[in-house]
Every structure is written in structure tokens, then in C-alpha cells.
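Example complex used in Figure S2.
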Amino acid sequence: MNNTLEISNLSKDYGDFQLDNISFSLPKGYIMGLIGPNGSGKTTIIKIIMNLIMKQRGDVKIFGLDHQLNEVEVKKRIGFVYDTPNYYEHLNLNQFKNTIAPFYDQWDDAVFYNLADRFKLPLNKKLKAFSKGMAMKSSIAMALSHNADFIVMDEPTSNLDPVVRRELLDFFRELIQDENKSILFSSHITTDLEQIADYITYINEGKLVFSKTKDDVFETYAIVKGGNELLDSDTKKSFVSVRSSEYGFEALTNDVNNTRKLFGDTVIYEKASLEDIMFYTKIETENKL
Amino acid sequence: MLQLVIKDFRANWTYVLLGLAVLLTLSMSFIYTALKAPFEVDPDILIYFLIVIVSSIVFSLLFLMLEQLYNTNILFASVPISRKQFVEQRYLTTYLQFLLSLGVHFLGLQIGIYFYGAIDHSTIEPLYSPLIWLLILIVMIIINGFSMPFYFKFGLRKGVFIIGLIQCFTFIAFVYIMMSFSEIWAAFQNMIFNVIALNTFITIPFCIALSLLITWISIQTSVSIYKSKDL
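Predicted assembly (520 residues):
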């Protein structure tokens, strides 16, 4: 069993929002970044994985086990970090640790205190007095103190300043040196994922745009710039979406080889960032509506 | 599952102590004031037991309130416990809170009587009846059995509102029936009292069995609601 997470044909209908037939998998020992604009369905997917939200169709397997039928077994091996902390604010970190630790057979106090020390977390300060960065670091320390093999994080860096974000990304990079651990990490801060993710799964408007290795993404997607005279209805079809101005066009292609065959050296090719991919895909979706 | 019960008390012990102190003061001051008034069995004892029931039920909602306040149901739904265990634990915790609050009320009663001084104990005999305290516990268990599925379905705030509405309508319907069919109601009331008076050794086990049945149905309903609930 090489996949830590396997999601197939996952669907959930909220009426005004649908998660539509999502399938992807995360191999053991890798970091997957789940990207997408706000409201695209990232948190819904994470909540379904954690069985906080009930799926309507599809399968979710974690460590090869159905996540609902083997809920307790699976959750023993998951460390979770949510975008907003859900804890008793009147407790201090030590008391909070004492509340959570008994639920895990493999809880390791030494690991917890080590992480608290490394993150410079005060053990006796009330949680309500913690800054956002400290609260997030506390959640991460909790998630990693029971020897979890799969870390699920929903927007762990979204409210953090650049210094704390960098610290955490370095820490995740260290963590993944253990090849038994896998991380699923949702974020709309794509630069974070460009730094640490091995796989990128892109969700837009509840639909899977792609799920592939980061290298594949950067090999297939590119920003193309050229003169407007090169654009016609046929050539436009080779792009995800196009922006034109009086000076020329700028477009995103998801098949750079094909685009090269089509345009040769008459256009300029630039590496597309995840942000570019998200931006142009969003334009395409909006144009379709 | 015991861990879940312990975590509620462990994480919120200051609130528990505060709540129990309120219950103690309530019992103590009510009895002391009632005895000074001077004490009348009817309606003072009835009012006292109503206070005990209502305040104990409010106290039993403490953990649910804190859970809603801090959204900790998401946290505890993410640790390795099943939703069924979570629901069963909530019932168990509530019953422990009932026992604790009844114990504290009884203690408050003793303190109130002690401060009042010498008293003819025959006038306050019903306050010492284990049977009445047991019946109060049964009433609370039955009320809890009806309320819990609403809390799991709608959350505490909406749940309390809906239960409140149901209780209001039930009360109005009850009063209406009592007033409209007073003879039939009186006959029915007499029949109930006669049955109870006939043999408490039968009626009490019957009440216990009824409360257990209601609890069992309530737990099954809550589990099926909570298992399919989006958090």
C-alpha cells in the first residue's frame, strides 16, 4: 500500500455549491498542496477526509482503510491542524495538552515539550492570550506529538506573518524527511506550496482542475506572450484563457509542447507560477458562466 | 469513552465548581428563607423541588454551552473516537452532572437547615425522602431523554429554543385539558395516586424502567442524528 490517501469520485451537494466527482491520491512520504481560490472546496475536502462532513458519493481511503468504517483506527494515525483553532481558551497549553493526550495511545510528552520549546510556546499562558502564530504552532505541536503518519492541515499559514510562515515551512520540510509521513496542506498562498509541495491538487468551483506532481505542473503549464495578430479562434483554443490588450496578448497554456508546435519562436514562453495558473483558470471559469 | 467524560470535567473544572457553588447557594438560601417565612409544606416543598430540577438541568447544559462557545465538537470529532462514543459520553456526563447537582442541592439543604437552627423535622420530612430524590432524578433523566436529540440535531441554542416552545405548548395544552375536563382529569389524577400508593415497590421500578427505556430510545436517536451530521 503506497498511497496514504486515496479519494475517488467524491461528491457533496450543498445546493448552492457542489463538490463534483473529485479523485486524487497522495503517495506515502510526500507533501501534497491543495490549492484553489477561497470557497473552491478545499476545506470541504479536508472536513470530509476528517469525517466532519458526510460525503454523498465516492470513497475516501486513508492508509488503505475506509475513513468512516475504520474511523478510530485511522484517526489514531492522523494529526490535524485547522485554520481556526478550536480549543478551550480558558486553559493554558499544558492543560490543553493534558486534555488531548489521553486520546492517543502513542502520545509522546517528550516530543510535545520539545516542539513547544522549539516553537517558543509558553506552557503556562492562557490560550486566549496566544497570537495567531502561537495558536497555529500549538495546533501543529499537538498534531505531531502522537507520531502521526498523516498530517492534514487546512490553511495553516494563512494568517501568519512571513517570518512565522517561513519557520513553519522549514519545519514541514524537516518533518517530511521521515519517509513514512505524508502531509496534505491546503492553502491559497501558492508560494508556500511552490516551496515545499511534491504534488499539487488544484480545485476550482468544486471541480478538480488537476492533481499531479509539482514538476509535471511546471512542465506542462506556461505563460505565453505575443502579438495580437497571432490570435484567432483556432489558436485561442490552445490556451486555458487569454488576456489581450492593445500591446499584445498574455495567455496560460496547459500543454506547452503543443503550444510550441503551434507558435514556435514567435511568442515568449515564461514559467507559470501556481498563482498564474489559479488566476487564468479562474478567468476561464468566469467566462464560461 | 471514560476519557471523554474525564476531559469535560478536567478542562472545565473551574466552571463546574462555579456552577456547583451557585446550586449550593440556591438550595441553602431558599430553604433558609422558606423556614424563616415560616415554612409551609405546600407549596414550599413543591417550589423547592422545581428549583432543584430546573437548576440541575441548566447545570447539566454547562459542557454543551462551553462546547458551542469554543467549537470544541470539531476538535473532539477529530480525535480517535467514534461519533457513537461521543454521543454516549454526552449522556453519561449529563447523568454524572445530575448526580453531582442533586448531591450539592442536598448539601445546601442541610446547611440551610443548620443555619436556621432548631426545627421540628417532621415538617420538612419530605425533603429527606430518598424516594422523592430518586423521583426527581428520574424526572430529570426523562426530560434529558427528550431534549438531547434536539441538541444534537439543532445545536444547543436552537435546541433549547425548540424544547422551550414544545414545553410551553405542552403546558398550555395540559392546563386546557385540566380546565376543560376537570372531572375526568381529577379521576385520572386519583387513579395515578392510588396506583402509586398501592405499592411503591412496583411503581418505582416501573418509573426506573420507563426512564431507562426513554434514555435508550433517546441515545439511539441522537446517535443516528449525530452520525450523519455535518460539523
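The first strand of chain A starts at residue 3 and ends at 13. The CA atoms of residues 231 and 249 of chain A lie 8 Å apart.
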